Amino acid sequence: ILNVEQSPQSLHVQEGDSTNFTCSFPSSNFYALHWYRWETAKSPEALFVMTLNGDEKKKGRISATLNTKEGYSYLYIKGSQPEDSATYLCASSGGGADGLTFGKGTHLIIQP
Amino acid sequence: DAGVTQSPTHLIKTRGQQVTLRCSPKSGHDTVSWYQQALGQGPQFIFQYYEEEERQRGNFPDRFSGHQFPNYSSELNVNALLLGDSALYLCASSLPGDGYEQYFGPGTRLTVT
Questions:
Q1: Are B87 and B76 in contact (CB under 8 A)?
Q2: Which of the two ends of chain B, N or C, has the fewest CB atoms closer than 10 A to its terminal CB?
């Protein structure tokens, strides 16, 4: 994998259901994996920064896991709510001072 | 505590013109990065400024230049604008040692006609 790839590109989920999506990234020269939540007309909001293989982080109903050996991360949302509707971006960095390499995002729509 | 701010919000320019975008980092942050998000793409890294110098650069031509001031605010300059420069330009600030978590501003929407 040369680039950061996210799937699916978009997702419609019923309110109350749980969902997850994937970020794949180059496992070589890896430093950190970042997840952002981006609502329309707002700033991207940092959710998680993960660096260690096997890392799991949680913020309320949202959690993320990291596998640096195979180069993927999952983001999970439990009991989706309408306010979870947003684009979720993941990005990897190859070093502490490196710029972030972003995927194209997963556009999540929660249907009442 | 003000987050990252950017100005202007929107801008319309003509091909061949020059543009300057501005960014004020989050209080206490000393590192500023700029990203370009074209339609349908993820943000792409342009460059990063630290201690008033360009520390790292992405794959962007020399038409894209920047500056960082002693108060850590930053400018992005684009010369000889092309239609393809139309995009959302995001600024992010960070503090080395903080896991390099980058805090983003809302962006400047540039339209080149």
A1: no
A2: N
Q: Which residue has the tokens 């349908």?
A: B40
Token reading at A22: 């994937």
- Work out the burial of residue B95: count CB atoms within 10 Å of its CB; fewer than 13 is exposed, 13-18 middle, 19 or more buried: middle
Q: A112: which residues sit within 8 A by CB, 6+ positions away?
A: A15, A82
Q: Does A103 touch chain B (CB under 8 A)?
A: yes
Closest CB from A4, A42, A104 relative to B106: A42
pLDDT of residue A2: 64
Please report the beta strands in A15-61, taking only residues with DSSP state E, as ranges in sequence order: 19-24, 32-38, 45-50, 56-59
- Please enumerate in sequence order all residues whose Cβ is within 8 A of that of B42, keeping only pairs 6 or more positions apart, or say none: A4, A89, A91, A102, A103, A104, A105
Q: Is A7 on the interface with B (CB under 8 A)?
A: no
**A57-91 per-position pLDDT tens digit:** 999 999 999 999 999 999 999 999 999 999 999 99
Q: Does A100 touch chain B (CB under 8 A)?
A: yes
Contact B104 A97 (CB under 8 A): no
Structure tokens at B44: 């792409």
Residue in the block written with tokens 């490196």: A98
Reduced to 3 states (helix: H, G, I; strand: E, B; else coil), residue B78 is strand
pLDDT digits (tens, 9 = 90+) for A96-107: 667 899 999 999
Q: CA angle A67-A103-A80, nearest 5°?
A: 75
Residue B81, strand partner residues: none
